């Protein structure tokens, strides 16, 4: 998209910004942020903002609540901000939390490119940002990024896909949000394996935005024209649940194998019940705790952080399901 | 009345102009160029440069295969502590080893080597997947790919070179022959690991 030079009509920017700020301030904060109460962490205790892409998916609820709980365990005040998958709302949260004097931000970004500006703004104000689970496309903005190794996880999942579906067949891929690098990394890892088998034909590839309802709707539509598919690879577990619901309703559960990614509670139960074939277990609690601990260390004076910390992802199938619980392993 | 109308029209024009330049909704097409892949980065060039200029030195610094294979057979977790290459957080690790061994079997999975003085490894002959070689040999460390998806491309290119320049040489390996080799293995879970070590080779030579 091209950008155009422009000059705002006099007074309009202030009016729009004022309306926008007033609107944003009322949206989805568990606690209000008040600049008058901001304090600097001279005692090593600070205020930590947990800005999460959405709370409309249990996986992200676990991520956000774990980060908040760990920050509180470490003696800090912590507040969750829900961006509702909206970069504009996320930017507004940043404006508010910076004005309120927060000392650190734990960010689960809405958009790999679109979230960079907000992170840079925080950096300019001296407020460190630690990205959790979702990468931003800048290495010099966040202090550190703690990210699942989505690519390696989906390579392993892809190998299991070929093992269980076979080297010939038709399949569908459901993609997540287009602006999220996790979508691309998972698809890259899966295709790194599956594309080496020319007998496996992808008959449809559609986005369902990591959303269960959207996946249900998309899968229902795909099944009407492709009732003979053998498998569906989904870029997250919410979409896997929606896809399985469509498959089951169509009476094709014995024919079509569904694969997810996340390790969400309902998919772990579904694998145990023999409904969904496999998922890749991410460790949201591990990532969230690590981010909170990094923020704690920053507040206490540490400044040397590795930019990216990958967190391993593990294949979960019926063969090893007893080693896992929702959102993690039993170990 | 006409004054109010004029004010409203001006306001609408101002808001319309603002929305034209700063739309509330932006449609982003799927597919096409990927913004998460940096312009100017060429994974194929980076992989070839690594293979040509730095792989030899990396192999010289790889761990001794017999030592690692024996340690893995004894205690995978302990072997991981001693020889494992770890990135980030997780219970798994990668290995990068080199040595010599005699071909004792050829299967559909690969070529089985018995090492001196002890240990067994399997050099895999199938396609190479994932980022194990990239990470184990350090190909992604310097220069670091600008984005994670560039890193994926680098892994693919390194795998392609491994297939073209090392794996393919295993086709002619004969039982009883001695091979010099270097390769990488991924151990996802030491607790569940069962031998032998399965390596994606980056070097295969008949001395």
From TrEMBL, chain A:
Residues 48-302 form the Periplasmic binding protein domain. One of its GO terms (cellular component) is cell envelope. This is D-ribose-binding periplasmic protein. Residues 1-24 form the signal peptide. GO terms for molecular function: carbohydrate binding. It is found in: Cell envelope. It comes from Botrimarina colliarenosi. Belongs to the bacterial solute-binding protein 2 family. PROSITE patterns: PROKAR_LIPOPROTEIN. Its main location: other. Keywords: Signal.
TrEMBL record, chain B:
InterPro entries: TM0957-like_sf, UCP033535_lipo. SUPFAM superfamilies: TM0957-like. Gene3D superfamilies: Envelope glycoprotein gp160, DUF2291, alpha/beta domain, Envelope glycoprotein gp160, DUF2291, helical domain. It holds the Pfam family DUF2291. It comes from the Bacteria. This is DUF2291 domain-containing protein. It comes from Botrimarina colliarenosi. The lineage of its organism: Bacteria, Pseudomonadati, Planctomycetota, Planctomycetia, Pirellulales.
